[in-house]
Amino acid sequence: MRELTDTQQISHNSSDDTQSTTYREFLGFLIGEELYGINICDIEEIRVWQTPTLIPNSADFVMGVINLRGMIVPIFDLRIRFHRIRPDYQPTTVIIVLKGTNSQGDTKHVGVVVDGVADVITCMAHEITPLQRVTSLSRFIEGITRQKNGLATILSTRPLMDLTEESEEGFCDQ
Length: 174
Fold this sequence. Notes:
mainly beta; six-stranded mixed β-sheet; disordered N terminus
């Protein structure tokens, strides 16, 4: 894995829809040793770690906000939200800035902190196995897909967009 030296833009090229099989692409990233993926079309950019401006009385997983070209973007640490650990910030730690709609249909930008970026995960849509509701965090998971070195958990963007409301309510799953 290479270190990022600055902001890295992601192009949003659509794939050829004339194929009879639908392929999906996800940006692979690591939280600890676990591989996760998020739809590549929902990624605005990847940024090297920068310390956000703190927000008083916010939930533990809310790191603060950053100024992204004049836009204030909340930053959430998925390592804390998913695993309840207080992680270190290493040279490979990045902020993935997502653009999507929340459950109310509002377009939002949020940044999620992860341990590092991995390869692009490409799989056919039918290779993503939906996860039954096992925990309160299941709403974040679209499904699981097999990769050559194990499993990858595919995240759904919409619940991540709702983390803003969750943090405002002071809500934190136990």
